[in-house]
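User: Second chain of the day. Same drill as before.
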Amino acid sequence: MSLWQQHTDGILMRNTQMLVLPSSSMANTTQDPFYFIFMGIPGFEAHHIWISIPFCCLYTISIMGNTTILTVICTEPSLIQPMYTFLSMLALTDLGLTLSTLPTVMQLLWFNNQIISFEGCFAQLFFLHTFSFMESSVLLAMSFDRYVAICRPLHYATILTNSVVGRMGLAILCRCVLAVLPSLFLLKRLPFCRSHLLSHSYCLHQDMIRLVCADIRVNSWYAFAVVLLIIVMDPLLIVLSYTFILKSILCIASWTERLRALNNCLSHMLAVLVLYVPMVGVSMTHRFAKHAPPLVHVIVANIYLLAPPVMNPIIYSVKIKQIRQGIFRLISQRSMHLR
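Assistant: Same format as last time:
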């Protein structure tokens, strides 16, 4: 037996002894699991308290940064524009993504609480994947905003009206919820008769599906369709929009104007890279590096979920002058009130 198998079996036995199941349900635990067990950071269980410090800092940066962006956009009348409306959608999505994982991650690191209920795990899976897909969809909408602003500047106000932006936001929400819900129903109908041990400190679909001991072809085909329609199509459409943007920029005679137009898109391009590079990384490790050390999967998954919420407020507050000025005004107003 491998050291990894001994390690996982030991955790499973230890946590199973802690859990008390109803006596009437003991015979059906293989068909109807009542709990899952989080792995955490394998090999570093004794150092979870110390590891919680950087995690706590990252979560604090994410919550404070995205809340500040939302506050600035809501309180500054000059920022009531489609570009900043999409940015507020991105900040809300990042907050949702952060709050989806924070409870289970921190209770594992602080209190060594590794158990989550069957229903709680599915609820976390729904919110985590919904907000993750929303992040991609909002970035796609922002790329369309940049395309209209640079390629159709005279028609910007007539194309991206408040009603159009509102409908786009509603379409994003419906698209992501309807993409995730069927996968939950397809997964819930299957029996979890293997180990209940998850390899992360939160519930991911890719992680839970490997615990199923039934035919998962329908789930796999549906997951493949969702990957094509969101994870593949969204970045392709973003690349297409930037192809038109670059073509339009190259037609500008002045180099100063070209650099100004590119600078207006730089923050969005950085946000796209921050999301899709870790997303591709976690997909590749789950598909092609199944036998890699568990620590590799944990690190890649944490980067995928923490990088966008932490980095986006920093990127937009540094690169967008109006956001930066709004933050300074907000800080000065707070300091005056404290006096």
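The two ends are 66 Å apart (CA to CA).

User: Great, on to the next one.
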